[in-house]
Amino acid sequence: MIAGNHDSGQRLGTASKLFDRNRILVRGPVSSDELPLVLEDGAGPVAISALPYAEIYAARRAFGDESIRSPEDVLHAQIAAAKAHVPETARWIVVAHAFVTNCQPSESERTLSVGTVETVPSSIFDGANYVALGHLHRPQIAGRDSIRYSGSPLAFGFDEAGTTKSMTIFDLDPDGQIVDLRTVAFEPLRHVREVKGHLADLVTDAAKHPSDDYIRAILLDEGALIEPAAQLRPYYPNILQTLREKARELVMSSAGRAQSKLDDPIGVIGEFLEYVRGEGSTDQELEVTKEVLDQPILEDTE
Hints:
Blueprint: H1 9-15, E1 37-41, E2 44-51, H2 56-63, H3 71-83, E3 91-97, E4 99-100, E5 119-120, E6 130-134, E7 140-142, E8 144-149, E9 166-172, E10 178-185, E11 192-197, H4 199-208, E12 214-219, H5 228-232, E13 239-244, H6 248-252, H7 265-277, H8 283-294
Parallel strand pairs: 2-3, 3-6, 4-5, 6-8, 11-12, 12-13
Antiparallel strand pairs: 1-2, 7-8, 9-10
């Protein structure tokens, strides 16, 4: 078990003192002394190196190397330290936290670094017989068949709707080759999924097919709607989000800043409407806005 970039390495590392070091390996903070867990089977030793996530400055301190400037540099240092402790005849499994180049991320992952390239090449793991990776939430192969993300056990975002979560099981032959590799699919108690349509149609369909799944409703309606989530919740008790189709990308993006000056309220209002629904003021809305703005301001004289 290793700490990831969502975890407290110090807290997780504390638990390592409670377990039998010859049977269970828990790695929290980064260390220059990357000792493996060595197990034995009929073909000999298997060394398992567990490499936790480490911030660049923490890695510099641990390895005494000020030249570490990226996640790739951190992982290079960790792998070199781990490889030095692998018995000569042992087959080698690496467990690591990394973002391998050309792999597919999800919306729920945090970036591993700021101001540097956060990805690493799959070749960084050359020499390992199998690499079990964490960080990306989608199960996938990372460069070659023996480098894999198992992915998260549950979907953590709606962009993972329809993704089958699984675990990977394999055997190592005496030569360190992967044999009998297979995935075991998980069946979650509740799925993460999207429904799309006009609100009235979605309510009708939900009434016919109620569900406890985690739902995001994409609404195709124009104009005002009265509490769409509340209308769907009797049938979708775990509905989490409603979005307008036109404003979907805008709502999911970070908040912007108006370009119009404050002495141009019509421009500011137009930009706001463009932001929240994907189109500016209609002619009718523009007339109403001007009518309101042209009214004199009544001051309270009391």
